[in-house]
Amino acid sequence: MNPDSFQQLDKVIHEKSRMAIMSTLASSAELSFTELRDTLGMTDGNLTTHIRTLQKAGYVSVSKRFSANRPLTTCTLTGEGREAFGGYVDLLEEIIEQARGSK
């Protein structure tokens, strides 16, 4: 097992709530804040905090507009976010394979 692999994990994505957000957004072109909140069972404040962290890293884009005269906030992964998440998943798979190989 290579302990350096763990040091390479993206710490922004690795936190479980942010990993859940990234995973959910990776499987959808776009999700509303409400859909994301309800899917993940998070509070508004908690989700907002994690989305801001992902935005600062350049991984998530947030768009605000009106739909049927109501505000609508949507979230999408950026190209950089898709690439970072793909690399994160690939590294996790390598770690798992290393662990299985060392049995």
Account of the protein in words:
The chain is an alpha+beta fold and 103 residues long. The protein has a single domain, classed as Winged helix-like DNA-binding domain superfamily/Winged helix DNA-binding domain (Arc Repressor Mutant, subunit A, Orthogonal Bundle), CATH 1.10.10. It has 6 helices and 3 strands. The protein has a 3-stranded antiparallel beta sheet with strand order 1-3-2. The radius of gyration is 16 Å and the shape is elongated. The mean pLDDT is 93.
Give the secondary structure arrangement, pairings included.
Elements: H1 4-8, H2 11-14, H3 16-26, E1 31-32, H4 33-40, H5 44-56, E2 60-67, E3 70-77, H6 79-101
Antiparallel strand pairs: 1-3, 2-3
Would you give the CATH topology? Arc Repressor Mutant, subunit A
The top-level CATH class is Mainly Alpha
Q: Which shape, going by the Cα principal axes?
A: elongated
Helix amount: 55-70%
Helix-and-strand structural type: alpha+beta
Largest sheet: 3 strands, antiparallel
The count of domains is: 1
Query: What assembly state would you assign to the polypeptide chains in this entry?
Result: single chain
Query: How much of the polypeptide forms β-strand, as a percent range?
Result: 15-25%
Order of helices and strands: HHHEHHEEH
Give the tags:
17% strand, Arc Repressor Mutant, subunit A, 6 helices, 103 residues, three-stranded antiparallel beta sheet, single chain, alpha+beta, 62% helix
